[in-house]
TrEMBL record, chains A, B:
<dbReference type="InterPro" id="IPR024084">
    <property type="entry name" value="IsoPropMal-DH-like_dom"/>
</dbReference>
<keyword id="KW-0479">Metal-binding</keyword>
<dbReference type="GO" id="GO:0004449">
    <property type="term" value="F:isocitrate dehydrogenase (NAD+) activity"/>
</dbReference>
<dbReference type="GO" id="GO:0005739">
    <property type="term" value="C:mitochondrion"/>
</dbReference>
<dbReference type="GO" id="GO:0000287">
    <property type="term" value="F:magnesium ion binding"/>
</dbReference>
<keyword id="KW-0460">Magnesium</keyword>
<dbReference type="GO" id="GO:0051287">
    <property type="term" value="F:NAD binding"/>
</dbReference>
<feature type="domain" description="Isopropylmalate dehydrogenase-like">
    <location>
        <begin position="8"/>
        <end position="333"/>
    </location>
</feature>
<protein>
    <recommendedName>
        <fullName>Isopropylmalate dehydrogenase-like domain-containing protein</fullName>
    </recommendedName>
</protein>
<keyword id="KW-0809">Transit peptide</keyword>
<dbReference type="InterPro" id="IPR019818">
    <property type="entry name" value="IsoCit/isopropylmalate_DH_CS"/>
</dbReference>
<dbReference type="GO" id="GO:0006102">
    <property type="term" value="P:isocitrate metabolic process"/>
</dbReference>
<keyword id="KW-0520">NAD</keyword>
<dbReference type="InterPro" id="IPR004434">
    <property type="entry name" value="Isocitrate_DH_NAD"/>
</dbReference>
<dbReference type="GO" id="GO:0006099">
    <property type="term" value="P:tricarboxylic acid cycle"/>
</dbReference>
<comment type="similarity">
    <text>Belongs to the isocitrate and isopropylmalate dehydrogenases family.</text>
</comment>
<dbReference type="Pfam" id="PF00180">
    <property type="entry name" value="Iso_dh"/>
</dbReference>
Amino acid sequence: ASASDRIRVTLFPGDGIGPEIAESVKQVFREAEVPIDWEEHYVGTEVDPRTQSFLTWESLESVRRNKVGLKGPMATPIGKGHRSLNLTLRKELNLYANVRPCYSLPGYKTRYDDVNLVTIRENTEGEYSGLEHQVVRGVVESLKIITRQASLRVAEYAFHYAKAHGRERVSAIHKANIMQKTDGLFLKCCREVAEKYPEITYEEVVIDNCCMMLVKNPALFDVLVMPNLYGDIISDLCAGLIGGLGLTPSCNIGEGGIALAEAVHGSAPDIAGKNLANPTALMLSGVSMLRHLDLHDKADRIQDAILNTIAEGKYRTADLGGSSTTSEFTKAICDHL
Amino acid sequence: ASASDRIRVTLFPGDGIGPEIAESVKQVFREAEVPIDWEEHYVGTEVDPRTQSFLTWESLESVRRNKVGLKGPMATPIGKGHRSLNLTLRKELNLYANVRPCYSLPGYKTRYDDVNLVTIRENTEGEYSGLEHQVVRGVVESLKIITRQASLRVAEYAFHYAKAHGRERVSAIHKANIMQKTDGLFLKCCREVAEKYPEITYEEVVIDNCCMMLVKNPALFDVLVMPNLYGDIISDLCAGLIGGLGLTPSCNIGEGGIALAEAVHGSAPDIAGKNLANPTALMLSGVSMLRHLDLHDKADRIQDAILNTIAEGKYRTADLGGSSTTSEFTKAICDHL
Ligand SMILES: CC(C)[C@H](C(=O)O)[C@@H](O)C(=O)O
Ligand SMILES: CC(C)[C@H](C(=O)O)[C@@H](O)C(=O)O
């Protein structure tokens, strides 16, 4: 491949276990000869006034320029006067949809072996508006904001995704029986988009009922689309069904074709630097990113190598009940390639 | 027992399958010689201007006078100009805490056999404020209201309940990392109450993480207390873990010592009148009510008879995979008494 075929991708190794698991990803991608050049950016040590957070302006510029990024866990430093790193990224890059494919991993036993769904979360508004105030002493309120623009945008993405991935059904999750105006608007937008996709079955499920159905029979669901907070809750619930956040990939889609894949688990400072962390979620997020880049062959190869390594069970990190180090697990994946 | 030992209890049989399952409860309570006289009230056929709903003023007066009630499912009739029946009851009777004990039923197999927890939901405010408006075309907002008074009240109830029932831990569920003011106030109130109960372990769990933990390992939880919408979501999730709303009792606690036990499942119009409905949730709600009345012997006897009937498996209704009618199942419970 000539140099011009290579793709520049922004890499945020993040904090805690971030650098170690990012190292694993780089190693596996190198072994699979993925034509990517990483542009690494670390979180700054002081607040950058241009981002009002510890994220540097340069790192945001890098994602805007490359349009593709991969991100490890970022712990927001404690203190006042700056914004959460994750929320800043969502806002600044207009990451409007958080997409999490969630499927039972062959050979890794949980109470469920029949999960195969994708949650698509509106990522910019709703209960995350940040608008809160005290009305009188002892009475506080938060505003949930739903807009037609953001609802249509995420609904469009969900149906587009369903169609592109050969999925048959989109379920809109809501509580419009209580929040008739906000969730009602969200549903209205989903219905409008649904009409343009007659080949996809569309249904609406109330969030409480959805959670009950998910724990009883997750196979009932295919693609789920929902406002911000419900997405936060349901995507973690679904991750729990298959073993936790250490195993689930995630990708954020932004305006202008930006995609920022990320491991959504924490930075696990207690095991940082000890070669014990599980790089699976970040690696599978990297796979999501490759699919976004239409590098499906590479994506398939890497995904198979990861899943086969886990399924065989000989090399697993401690969180999966094994005793392998990060490097041993990573090497096992490379050997499978 | 003299007539004066008898307790008057308001009974709302409700709609759909409501009357049949209420009949089962009456039969079982009669067999167990529970000293209760039922005062039955049906939902009206037109809006009562004094309640702005299909609930009659007399039925609310009955609960206020008796202070104890049992309620079957109520489907809110479609149409404008009146309020949901369930929400009206909560508002008018100031039912501030919804309490749902949730435990794996011996002999009824689900993916979980280790559930034994109680969800306590704030039932009057939060996301259920009903305050919503359109800001400009395409932009709508809902207000979530949290007050110190309601938060303290439900927290007090949760700790009181935990202590009275020999439970060791109370977990407050929240999203205060995002809704710092509203959920922050809720947590502050929980902390204040926790200080008065040093013998009870207190912890705070973010709702997304809570849902993940619940599906991975529900045995981690004991008593959970939370704002309205999180309670709606989590109590249904927990019901799903043990088999669904057909099996889970619920009791609402109101100001002035009112307790309204209720089956939280729907009115199942498709099987109404066919002698197919499962009365378990309403019966176990009746058991919760008996405990509230300190009739623990009767409560234990009836609960054992229900659980043993289900565990034996010979008589089960269709929703539990059996082929018994409501009357056969009810008779089997009576035979166990
Ligand atoms: C850390 C927190 C602010 C964040 C969220 O609520 O969105 C997290 O739970 C997530 O899902 O990325
Ligand atoms: C029917 C609906 C309004 C109600 C609620 O959201 O509270 C129900 O889900 C419940 O839990 O009782």
